Amino acid sequence: MESIRYSARRFAQVLGLTPQELSEAEARGPLAKLRSSSPQRTLYTIEDLASARAALGRCPPRRPMRRQLFLNFKGGTGKTSVSTSYAFRLAEMGHRVLVIDLDSQGHASKCLGIAGEEAERTLFEALIKKVPLEQIIVKTGMPGLDLVPSNLRMSTIDLSLMPLAAREFRLRNALKEIEAEYDYAVLDAPPSFGLLNLNALMAAHDLFVPVLADFLSFHGLKLLFETVHSLEEDLEHVLDHIFIVVNAYNATFRIAKEAREALEKHYTEFLLKQVIRQCTKFAQASSEGIPIFAYDPESKGARDIQGVLDEVRERIGDPVKLKLAPAAGPRKAVEA
Ligand SMILES: Nc1ncnc2c1ncn2[C@@H]1O[C@H](COP(=O)(O)OP(=O)(O)OP(=O)(O)O)[C@@H](O)[C@H]1O
Ligand SMILES: [Mg+2]
Predict the structure, then answer these.
(1) Are 161 and 276 contained in the same domain?
(2) Into how many domains does the chain fold?
(3) pLDDT surpasses 60 at 336
(4) Which of 24, 203, 250, 309 has the most CB atoms less than 10 A away?
(5) 101 lines ligand 1 (CB under 6 A)
(6) Ligand 1 centroid from CA 187, angstroms
(7) Where residue 216 falls among pLDDT bands split at 50, 70, 90?
(8) Within-domain flag for 1
């Protein structure tokens, strides 16, 4: 993460300035100190970004921690790629963000440049041994972006949760300790069905479901919506929002267009208008341990995730409690 560099143009853009405004702020304004520390600079670091934001007073207002879960029981739909990019972008915009890697594969940790296998502690210690989360959280190097890492030790967590009291609420309770420290908690779930994911659902305000535009995704969605419904019935937890986001979309494939139309028809209330197009930069960025916004902010993938973020922020600005009505087939939302 420390290797990330911004061009002057991108640096200005991230700060919400024009390149001219940036030069002026550096020449005479609040960023003069930044310029004097390195007069010949053409590139900026992520540390520069944090100090410039502070000097300009361009920090978004603090907000109660919003817990957002990326989950699909189906594997390989883009949960990790989308959640880590989304979280990085929120931090780049000045928010305080905690990514929680729930998957023993440790892919979210890797995508953020952290070798999860080297982590001494993971969420396992927090949920099973009640170690405070602040002792488990690691810095990613990106100011404002922290991580609860994961590794193979997490693979037995469902079994270990089984005999415990309040086993469905452990994550929600653990997050209470740190809720004043972060504006967003972004949770990247494994593609499995068990107590850990139940904990994650019980902890979430918003559920993001990345799906591929194929018909296999329908089966996974139906199962997920049934789970969410039983959560409402049995554990009285109602999510604020469910966002289905079509990922790796290729409009030149007829089957993809048809699948998207079917999603629009059956999941109208939940489907985001913004799709994330197929983009090879996701794989390239993750192999370097940096999010797509740092790898190529002009790529289709980065622009589409920005679109998702914008659409979601508009929606969560005014959250409406949703309750799922029992129905055969794909479920419809009704207001509670
Ligand atoms: N929009 C996209 N365009 C092209 N490739 C993508 C896109 N999104 C993700 N991928 C690629 O698809 C693969 C699976 O993505 P990812 O690991 O994010 O999915 P996942 O749902 O987290 O998988 P798992 O279920 O194993 O946790 C990766 O190789 C990733 O680079
Ligand atoms: Mg994943």
Answers:
(1) yes
(2) 2
(3) no
(4) 203
(5) no
(6) 16
(7) confident
(8) no
Task: Report the atom number in ligand 1 closest to the C-alpha of 190.
Answer: 27
**What pLDDT is recorded for position 276?**
98
Residue 264's domain comprises 66-335
User: How far is ligand 2, taken at its centre, from the CA of residue 39, in Å?
Assistant: 42
**Same domain, yes or no: 17 and 160:** no
The DSSP result for 215-284, as a single string, is THHHHHHHHHHHHHHHHHHHH----SEEEEEEESB-TT-HHHHHHHHHHHHHSTTTB-S---B--THHHH
Q: Are residues 286 and 205 in the same domain?
A: yes
Per-residue pLDDT for 266 more than 60?
yes
Examine the domain organization and report whether 135 and 16 are in the same domain. no
Residues 4-17: pLDDT tens digits? Answer: 999 999 999 999 99
Q: Would you say residue 85 lies in a domain?
A: yes
Q: Which residue has the tokens 């409690």?
A: 321
Residue 270 near ligand 1, beta carbon < 6 Å: no
Ligand 1 centroid – CA 319 distance (Å): 29
**In testing the pocket of ligand 1, which one of 81, 86, 196, 208 has its CB within 8 Å of the most ligand atoms?**
81
Global pTM exceeds 0.70: yes
Domain identity same for 28 and 80? no
**Closest atom of ligand 1 relative to the 189 alpha carbon:** 27
Q: Per the structure block, which two tokens stand in for 36?
A: 């004097």
- Domain membership flag for residue 61: no
Q: pLDDT category, 318, cuts 50, 70, 90? A: very low
Same domain, 41 and 76: no
